[in-house]
Amino acid sequence: MSTLISDAMKQQAALLSTLRKANIYTYSLEVSSACRNRIIVGGKEHVNFISNNYLGFSTHPKVLEAVRAAMDTYGLGIGGSPLACGTTEIHYRLQEKIARVYEKEACVICASGYQALVAGIQATIGKGDVAIMDSLVHRSIVDGVTLSGADRRMWLHNDTEDLADLLARVKKKYGRMLILVDSVYSMDGDWADLAALGKLKDEHGALLLIDEAHSLGVLGKRGYGLPDQFGLPDAADVVAGTFSKFAGAVGGFVAGPADFIDHLRHNASAYIFSASLPPMTAAGVYRAFGLLEEEPEWRAKLWDNINYFLAGLKERGFDTGPSRTAVVPLLIRDVEKTMTFNKMIFDEGVYASPIVHPAVAPAESRIRLGVMATHTKEDLDFSMDVFVKVGKKLGIVR
């Protein structure tokens, strides 16, 4: 008789049991407050560095007002897929808004950012094609490529010379080549060179899909992400992303040429076979887009906090890698120390996320910190003092 629990599952269960017994397991703790700069976890207030709610829009009064109005009209959910009864006037308005933001002909809304990436890739490539991925792309991209049936190749992170060599080697072997990058990388906080990518894809006859998850609302003169940052709205053929960062919500999108988006609607299983994003969420996200234009002070405050925090951490002897955005890694480079560090700062009042293998290589273990526009200088200073106190005890900083 076969058993549900494999040897690999047993090994993982043993590891998790060890972490819990050592009292350094800090995943999936119970939160009992909204996602603000300070958050209640286990009945105690902590500075919130674990979220991606960069602009603080998930609790903005104007966003909540829009959510309540849509909930009064549509209820909890819409009760169907986008191709059935799951597309409302709110969904259409949001799709049109995103298409305008990215200067694309059309857009679809998905129930999650993960679903959006998978659907966008499924609609672009298939068997006989090749996906050419930056080595640090998000797992949703890797899964999307796997489900598409296309072959895959990887190039060294942000190394466009390596990408150029790879494109030259494979372009005669496949029907389509799709270059895939994160606009801002979710673990390191650096961003892709859109200008170089655009030139390479044109030179080699490739396509380019960018994942705007950590870029939308953060980069660019208007907060419209990597294309806005570079002033190159046409560089990417397909733009996908999520609302979980810029709006602190849930859901995702894919934007591109109108015929392509129609093809996606009727052929990408990740889009077709999923219930629609609730209208109240779509309404809140739509209002968050309005705030990008009406209240630019939130982005200004976010960047003031990013620069202040990065400079302060480096002055205190911490390694923040190549980060230059709201994603700030504290590189510990040791799995046990990373887990211990995170538990110790949690006990001191800072809630953050330990990132260890298999999310990153063991030697790349780190604490991942998400800077928010709503963080006060007191929040940042208090947290850095805690990091130093704990870092000295563990021999991470002098």
Question: How does this structure look, described?
Answer:
By secondary structure, this protein is α/β, with parallel strands linked by helices. It folds into two domains: 26-54 and 296-393, Aspartate Aminotransferase, domain 1; 60-294, Aspartate Aminotransferase, domain 2. The chain is 42% helix and 15% strand. It contains 14 helices and 13 strands. It has helices at residues 7-21, 61-74, 89-101, 113-122, 139-148, 160-170, 194-204, 226-230, 258-267, 269-272, 279-294, 297-315, 335-347, 377-393; strands spanning 38-41, 44-48, 106-110, 130-134, 151-155, 177-182, 207-211, 238-242, 252-256, 327-331, 350-351, 353-355, 366-370. It has a seven-stranded mixed beta sheet, with helices on both faces. Strands 1-2-11 form a three-stranded mixed beta sheet. Strands 10-13-12 form a three-stranded antiparallel beta sheet, covered by helices on one side. β7, α8 and β8 form a beta-alpha-beta unit. α2 packs antiparallel against α11 (279-294), α3 (89-101) packs parallel to α11 (279-294) and α6 packs parallel to α7 (194-204). The protein is globular.
